[in-house]
Amino acid sequence: MDFLKTTDQDFAAKFSALVNNRRESRVDVSVAVQEIIANVKVRGDEAIREYTSCFDNHSPTSFGLSQKAITYYAQQCSADITTALEFAAERITAFHQKQVPQNFVYTDSVGVNLSLNWVPLSTVGIYVPGGRASYPSSVLMNALPAKIAGVRRIIMTVPTPNGKINPAVLAAAQVAGITEIYCIGGAQAIAALAYGTASIAPVDKIIGPGNAYVTEAKRQVHGTVGIDNIAGPSEILVVADDKNNPEWIAWDLLSQAEHDPCAQSILITDSIDFAQTVIDSIAGILPCLSTRKVADASWKEHGAVIVVDNLDASIPLVNQLAPEHLELCVDDPHQLAQHIRCAGSIFLGRYTPEAIGDYVGGPNHVLPTARSARFSSGLSIYDFMKRITYLECGKQSLQKIGKAAVILAEAEGLPAHARSISTRLQ
Amino acid sequence: MDFLKTTDQDFAAKFSALVNNRRESRVDVSVAVQEIIANVKVRGDEAIREYTSCFDNHSPTSFGLSQKAITYYAQQCSADITTALEFAAERITAFHQKQVPQNFVYTDSVGVNLSLNWVPLSTVGIYVPGGRASYPSSVLMNALPAKIAGVRRIIMTVPTPNGKINPAVLAAAQVAGITEIYCIGGAQAIAALAYGTASIAPVDKIIGPGNAYVTEAKRQVHGTVGIDNIAGPSEILVVADDKNNPEWIAWDLLSQAEHDPCAQSILITDSIDFAQTVIDSIAGILPCLSTRKVADASWKEHGAVIVVDNLDASIPLVNQLAPEHLELCVDDPHQLAQHIRCAGSIFLGRYTPEAIGDYVGGPNHVLPTARSARFSSGLSIYDFMKRITYLECGKQSLQKIGKAAVILAEAEGLPAHARSISTRLQ
């Protein structure tokens, strides 16, 4: 854990190191993934079957789950979890419905008709990881915006090592209305989604997190299909004054740290005493935490505490760090928030722990990491829509705008461009 | 040129081959580009200077152009071109201003405050190619949406082989209000934009087309900065009945073909006679066209004519081809257009040649190629904005939604998540 004070002589250098520290441990699996994709492209289901048997120790007769099977597994999920998923889905739906964009159409002063329509993608594939990171909440966060956008076919792949299915993931899929589910994973699942096989029709876009193989496979099929942002290890930045309960802040920092040894939790505060109390709190909590191994590694290796003179001084630091999650645990969080231009999602006030947003807040929990909040955004219904623009000139209106276009086409050395217009002006 | 009829026995196979034909000739320059980027990262301006001297045969004392120099070169551009650029800028601005999205804020029934703000990126770099593809119109199409989005710093790099500057590009930059211009290009320019050097501050996102080195460099710096969609060779699909002037349609098809030997022009018509007349027209025009070498290569290699029984039968074909540009040269183009779900930009009626949209229509001419209109869109102000979401619970409202989140956190095996909420519920 780094402890920085803005009054330190070497603060600028230390902060810059913190900003530029890349936490991702990239393993180069590109050749292995290339081979898997090429094999699936040529041999389809047969290749998928071999990889699934080999990597997941699982040999189903069919990869797809029947409606009966989906319902059966979903019902294995405890009622209180299913109810919580339904509650979450309702809130996520409400927030994402507010995002529905407006088409527009107008005729300009010279009589040209112009318009723009938002159109949903036709078909989307959601990759859900197996094992520990197989989160039912992520199924909702990925599927519901696609559904609200109007995507007609939303399918899901999830690896089932040893044939073991996570009932909560199936319950989430059922809550989200996903009816097409394949029990496959890894680069082979990504290849199937991108190119299709005899039993799996291809999709237009693949979303959802995965391991190094899945991520590399998404990179390789990008262009053939769309993909979402590549997610790095999770991050939280908490800006807190000394009026907070230090234990609450300790839990917030640990909630991010427990995700991944590469996760990062940073506290910015204007009180050195408060900083120390939070650090002590974390030390006190860690030994009793069941996820302590991961949380401890993350906090030790990537955690940071920054003491500033006053909380306004945190603003440029936050914008440079461009955190995935930002908590503003202060009296007037709105005053600070209006100056923040780079953050994925902001949690305002002392009663909005980031974890509430992971599940039931409403905004999406799929957010830009590794400073990409400088140029990208959390998942939204826009990720499942595209825009088509329309232009319509008539004989008269083309006369009014055509000449300028002819001049520019000629200037660019494109005579057929020029003639396609001028021939209609005669 | 392929000639297909839907009544052909082997139509499905031939059409599928057309859909899946990848026209991009990818040269693997990844290692060379890696080296250039690494060199610029470490040696900054010195490396840029060496590459510029070596690749562009140009050794300026400074890469940046002064205001005086920008004005000087812009004034070398002829007045009618500058006036046409101003006219185009006005129309492009009007269309993109209609895209300005709405923030939203609401308090839900349990008292939770939720909101979403659209925030412009801080700084964007536009790459403008040198040589033949150095299009002033593209400067406008890239810069104006960024300006309307509210990006404060928009910079441009343009290689100037042998120190030669394209006045029309500088005039376009001036019309678009770009005041920071560097005369560098290639992978070294992309590296400078992504990582910065002593003389060039880094940007948050890089946009604009380039050669294989530029494209690969953008791929490699993606993540450190945002990038736009990778553009492939241009495409046009014209759906036309036999009431069109065949020569007009011939020019439209050639206007795309003259861009690049890998460009693609496709005609779909319900009249075999009309198809033949257009083909003859093209053959007649080509010998006199100054861009005939490129246009002829593209038409011969990638051109296609598809004869359908009736124009409604073109709809599924169009949606599968997902063309960058679609012209609907028919009596009622709106009737057809409402069924098109995959196309970058649609040009309606007999008086809207695609080229009008390249310059002065208003909608953007940076559009998805290679069937990516299935999942992506043309350039817009949204490409220069990001969304921040906000969540604010109070003591009471957290009580109302917290329990469900605790249940889900526990189900996902994340105890610190659960405790960060439950500790605030007591």
Overview of the molecule:
The structure is a homodimer of 426-residue chains. In chain A, 45% of the residues lie in helices and 16% in strands. With 426 residues, the first copy, chain A, is of the alpha/beta class. Chain A has 3 domains: 30-101 and 115-227, Rossmann fold; 232-374, Nitrogenase molybdenum iron protein domain (Rossmann fold); 395-425, no CATH class. A 6-stranded parallel beta sheet of chain A has the order 1-11-10-9-12-13, with helices on both faces. In chain A, helix 6 packs parallel to helix 7 (167-176) and helix 8 (186-195) packs parallel to helix 9. The model of chain A has no long low-confidence stretch (mean pLDDT 96). Chains A and B meet through helix 5, strand 3, helix 10, strand 13 and helix 15 of A and helix 4, strand 3, helix 9, strand 13 and helix 14 of B. Chains A, B: Its EC number is 1.1.1.23. Chains A, B: Zn(2+) binds at residues 256, 259, 358, 417. Chains A, B: This is Histidinol dehydrogenase. Chains A, B: It holds the Pfam family Histidinol_dh. Chains A, B: Its cofactor is Zn(2+).
